[in-house]
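Pilot study result, target chain (189 residues):
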Amino acid sequence: MELVALRPDLVAHACERHLALAVKGVRLAAAIGVRCIWIEDCLTDLVGAQAFAELNVPVLARLVEEIRRLGMSSIYYYCGNPAGKWEMLFALGADALSLEESKKGFVIDVEEVVDRARGRCVVLGNLDALNLLPNASERQLRAEIGRQISAGRRNANRFMMSLGSPVTPETPVERVRLYCDLTRELGGA
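Predicted structure:
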């Protein structure tokens, strides 16, 4: 991370090398019939907005463009606090945007995400998989899923219910099944 400030030229070179490898992987995925690519961007919330604009955005936008050129869709998962980077996240052109649940001292409310998205891309829900999913009552879980689905409908129905993080190993399978059942019920599927 220090190199972002001290040697941005070296980081830019590394980004280009990484992009070349990612494009090879995307082309292989397209060749075997993959229809959607998940782009996970971790730790870049530690990079300032200017560095993100100069180093990350051009590379990510080219990756998204290549995915689209190959006839696939992309989901961009930004880990961390998107403050100061919202418009850049949408400008990448990904078909969908996924964000973590609120934690680590920041809040990401799906209603705010939908208001910012304005139908430009699919928004994935960010249900709290660390606390709410394993510990909430069925009523609380139902309420949060309903709230997120309702918010998603305001995004021109471009919404998919999702978790903000992976399911923890301690979460009982029955809770995951309940989450899926409630999502189908409340989403009208």
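One observation from the pilot: The CA atoms of residues 109 and 179 lie 19 Å apart. A full batch analysis is planned for the follow-on phase.
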